[in-house]
Amino acid sequence: MSPYIFNEGIFKMKHKQKVLILCTGNSARSQMAEGLLRDIAGDRFEVESAGTVASFVRPQAIAAMAEIGIDISGHRSKCLDEFLGTPFDFVITVCDNAAETCPVFPGAATRIHWSFDDPAEAKGTDDEIAAVFRRVRDQIRERLTAFAA
After folding, report:
1. What are the pLDDT digits (tens) for 47-67?
2. Could you give all domains of the chain from N- to C-terminal order, each with its CATH number?
3. Which of 95, 120, 136, 140 is catalytic?
4. How far, CA to CA in Å, does 147 sit from each of 38, 83, 144?
């Protein structure tokens, strides 16, 4: 798909829709979602993620994404305050806390809420915790694939 449209005898860049994905700590779910949507439809969406508070990108999220060939090791955890003046086409919350505390963003953003388990809360062995991160990653990928279709 070309990034240009032909209109009135000239080529113009297509407008990428802006998406903000929010979670509480911007450490796992929203980070994986950002990487997934960029991979699935980065040609059509400009994607950011943030948390109601910034923390760190969990190594288990980085590992779960690397397993499917997506590198989020360069991501950093961001606070939603960085984006308060930015208009978005879509604001997607991926946890209940973020949905309840999400501010209003300028413009006509469509708000979408998907509740996913917090893999950072997983207990057990390293393998059991990794399995939770994979399951949540796959659930997010399924939702984002349908969203981008």
Report:
1. 999 998 999 999 999 999 999
2. 15-144 (3.40.50.2300)
3. 95
4. 13, 22, 5
